[in-house]
Amino acid sequence: MSNGSSYAKQFMSHRAVLQDILSRVPDDKFDFQPWANAMTLGNLALHMVTSADWFAQSVKAGTFGRPEKVEATSMEEVRRIVDEYTAKTKTTIDALTEAQIEGMVDGKAIFGMDAPGKVWLGSMKDHEVHHKGQMFVYARIAGVEEMPFFVSRDA
Question: Which residues bind a divalent metal cation (predicted)?
């Protein structure tokens, strides 16, 4: 297993849980917000998947560009986009070389610092875990009663 494969496996142990949670969210909860200025449930999911892909693409490129913006209007669309981005991001991470993982990635323009790819991959995972925790709360408040374990051992 290459280093990229190891990072991809860790990533999927968390992303698979997001996909599971979203499969349980009722279709009419796309616009659910737990408070007035919160991201909607649908937009939180899109933020998670586009951000993870942005981190992975940046490690691959050696520099941070602009994250992609995607929009959806339904939970069905959100689930489709999440699945597409998950496959894309996993493929990108899986293909990362030792040089990309260990090499410096220019993050000054956005984060004020450069760091090795592995640092940014760690930040990607931390970001995923942070928002996955929020998604657990969103889903519970939105009426999802049965939730998955916080990490998938099958991914």
Answer: 47, 127, 131
Q: What is the pLDDT of residues 9-37, one digit of tens each?
A: 999 999 999 999 999 999 999 999 999 99
To the question of pTM greater than 0.85 for the whole model, the response is yes
Q: Name which of 11, 22, 111 is nearest 56 in CA terms.
A: 11
Residue showing tokens 């009419």: 28
Residue 148 falls inside a structural domain:
no
Indicate whether 10 belongs to any domain. yes
Q: What single-letter amino acid sits at 121?
A: L
Q: What is the DSSP letter of 39?
A: P
Binding positions for a divalent metal cation: 47, 127, 131
Residue ranges at the known binding site: 47, 127, 131
Which tokens go with 121? 């991959």
